[in-house]
Amino acid sequence: MIRIALYQPDIAQNTGTILRLAACLGLGVDIVEPAGFPVSDKSFRRSGMDYLDHVQWTRHDDFAAFEARRRHEGRRLVLMTTRGALPYADFAFREGDMLMAGRESAGVPPEVHAAADGRILIPMQPAMRSLNVAVATAMVAGEALRQLGGFPPVRNEKGLPEGSPFA
What we know:
Blueprint: E1 3-7, H1 12-25, E2 28-32, H2 41-46, E3 57-60, H3 63-73, E4 77-80, E5 86-87, E6 98-101, H4 110-115, E7 118-121, H5 133-148
Parallel strand pairs: 1-2, 1-6, 2-3, 4-6, 4-7, 5-7
Helix pairs in contact: 1-5
């Protein structure tokens, strides 16, 4: 399935929100350091991240380490950027895509743009600069999952998949 990558995140609360999103949707997360806060199991648990046990996340010391792993796994890098040309809903997502969000304060540097296999944007009103990184990540991940049929199954009031013979 797809993964979410965060490039040097600045704001712990946004990262926590994205980790929770990933846990709820069954997505993995890659965090490219350095971050603007301590990136560790201990620091996330201290901030009440009880969802941490339900998300598979990986720390990368830097972009080079992240890139080596991504390329080894054969994943496309899809960069969410205000400088993209293609609206995210028009992009054809594939299994294994890595959806990357940049730093809240500065986006990503030119070498990350150059490494991207796709650069997508969320169309907005002309006077607006950008959405919150967690909101943008949720929108794009939702569209990717919709296209790929990757949402978890809908459950009924008994916690069973809809249409289950045991419902």
